[in-house]
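Database export, one record per block. Field names are fixed; values are copied verbatim from the stored entry.
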Amino acid sequence: MIHGFPTPYPDELFYSLVARRAARLLYPAARAVLREVFGTAAVGGTLEFPCRLRYLQQALPDGHPCRNESILIKTTLLPWYAPFLPPERIAKLKHHILFGEGARTCARAGVLDGRVPQAPFLRFCPQCLREDSVSGRQLYWRRLHQMTGIEICPDHCMHLEESQVGRLEIGHWPRFETPPEALLQVSPRKAETNILLRIAKLGQELLSGAFEFRGQVQLDSTYRFALKTKVFFRVRQRVRFQDLARCLREVFPEDYLMRTNCTIPSPSAQTWIRSVVRNSTVAPLKHLLLICALDLKLTDFSTLKPTDLPISEDFKAPQVKTASKACDNHLCSMRGKSWPKWKSCELASHFKDYVNIFECQVCGRVTGECENSKQKTWIKDYGFIWRRRLTKLWRDPTQSVGNIASLLKVKWDTVKRQAWQMGLPFPRKGPILVTDSGMKKPATKTQAEKIVLKKWAERW
């Protein structure tokens, strides 16, 4: 049981929570902090996404605010990325934050895809730290100040300053440090750029977690509605990317675009703009740049319904919402008789078409169907009956991974991947060949292997 763990301040980073805990108890090394907070010293994490938070949540006493999963998640930067990600990826991100080791969360969130450079040191607002000192609170790091592209504090309109505390690297935890008292002597610098102040306010709204978009369909519809309103459409509903790139270059300073790796060398070079409009996985900052250039608000993405917005003729949702075939799950009691029920419709930019999602009401298997894909039908979720069967076979020491794959009619790597996502124990205890005396028996070689070994022995 962990007693006396700090209560999160407004917009406090999880790294800052652990740093305040370490400063209060004067731990001799970072490994001692890791063992207490995460249960092990062999753990990796990033500033955006810590990991193994379920261990901390269960170790805290009843009544602590961090026992609430939603409050604990808000100390991470998941609200910064979640509005621009599909629901399936958000669920996987939460799973990795609570149970994972932290190495794959950045890739799943699009931190690496965006290629937006991160500041090497933690940043702060001098005025915010002075207010913390006057109010008697312990100095702490804020989430918004660490986001790439946020250079102004929206509460005080002051430039953010860099400290000497290094930023967390992927897969490594340095020592945990709170803001030193010397930072109170830094003189604040008044900001004069209105467009950068608006970016900071949009980021503050994102981190509040008050906006929940409706996935890729909502993003695509709202962007196309704004582009059509601003006359960025050509004939046949095609986007005028050169005019849009010219607009971005006029709105944002050139040095700011260079610092954030969002430069547009010429109106004809608009790679990241195309990625944003076509709903590829990019850094949230690039979405915010386009939102500011189009004079949009975050409420436009959450209040307007996709059916009310004009969508390009090339992306019309199919009218037929019936599965092409009955459920063929061999574990389903109504195999061949139960027709999956239509669940939702998602826009797939790489298919240039919508994907219909169907779910079997008997076994829970979820499948996707799209006419423009090479594989017309594929499995998105194997269902609760399949997972229940996998859990039972996985805990049976007499079953090998190959036998489990044969019984479930999937590949052996699919068995391991699904078991890892379900949180089943690794490594598992499988069958071992032993002799009559109880010693481990080596695997027998096939006749072909014996012939090859004999030839090599004769040659030697």
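Remark 1: Strands lie at 121-124, 152-153, 158-159, 161-166, 341-348, 353-359, 366-369, 377-381.
Remark 2: The chain has a mean pLDDT of 80.
End of record.
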